[in-house]
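@channel sequence for tomorrow's demo:
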Amino acid sequence: MSIGSRTKIENRGMFATSVFYAVVGIIFLALMPMAGFVPYLAIIGIFSLLTAYGVFMKRTWAVWFVIILFFVGTTFSAVMLYDIAQLEALLGLGSICYLILTWLFTIYVLSKREEFGATQS
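structure tokens (generated this afternoon):
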């Protein structure tokens, strides 16, 4: 038995989605000290990490977390683009990438929502 067969990923889309939310959560928590410890970064960061876990484990509640983060992420990106991104091109580009990826992964999870809860224990 090789290592590759033991670590085979069943669904690459779900894995990519959980990695996206995990990376976003870590980034938001890492940005807190630079932003003056604003609470909304902590909330988005922690919620993203919980969503990553839920998507990875295919929990029923993960679909609701993805929907909530869709609205939060869209609002956050829009505010960042309107207020801050006019001064910083790199920050604007990051906000646009976050917005696009949030929309794509939300659509993906909602299209696969019947898979959630099938492995509920």
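heads up for whoever presents: Confidence is low (pLDDT under 50) at residues 1-7.
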